[in-house]
Specification:
This protein has about 110 residues and is mainly α. It is built from 5 helices and no strands.
Length: about 110
């Protein structure tokens, strides 16, 4: 597997991984967004009932579990963006611009 250091190489590695297993036929937007939702809920589980302080000071084992769930969310989100031909970096950049207009920073 190539070194993954950005979203493009992650996307390409996921394409290769899925192609080797013939999973592309299952990776429709509907299925991917459903899987993404499940993984996001699994991420939430790690913080349910935690205090803000506890959520900031995860024990090593829980930190590793949270990292796995973040990876799952990122993987499904990357695959969804790929299937829909959406550049997630461009989409995020555009959304930040929209949010800046909607929520201007206070002037000092």
């Amino acid at each position: 597997m190539p070194a993954i250091s950005d979203l493009t190489t992650l996307r390409d590695a996921l394409r290769e991984f899925c192609a080797a297993r013939d999973w592309h036929r299952y990776h429709t937007p509907k299925n991917l967004v459903m899987a993404l939702s499940v993984e996001a809920a699994e991420l939430v589980e790690h913080f349910q009932w935690s205090t803000p302080e506890e959520s900031l000071a995860l024990p090593a084992e829980k930190h590793a579990e949270v990292a796995d769930e973040i990876a799952d969310v990122l993987i499904y989100l990357t695959e969804l963006a790929d299937v829909l031909d959406i550049d997630p970096i461009a989409a995020a950049r555009d959304k930040i611009v929209k949010n800046a207009a909607k929520y201007p920073a206070p002037t000092r």
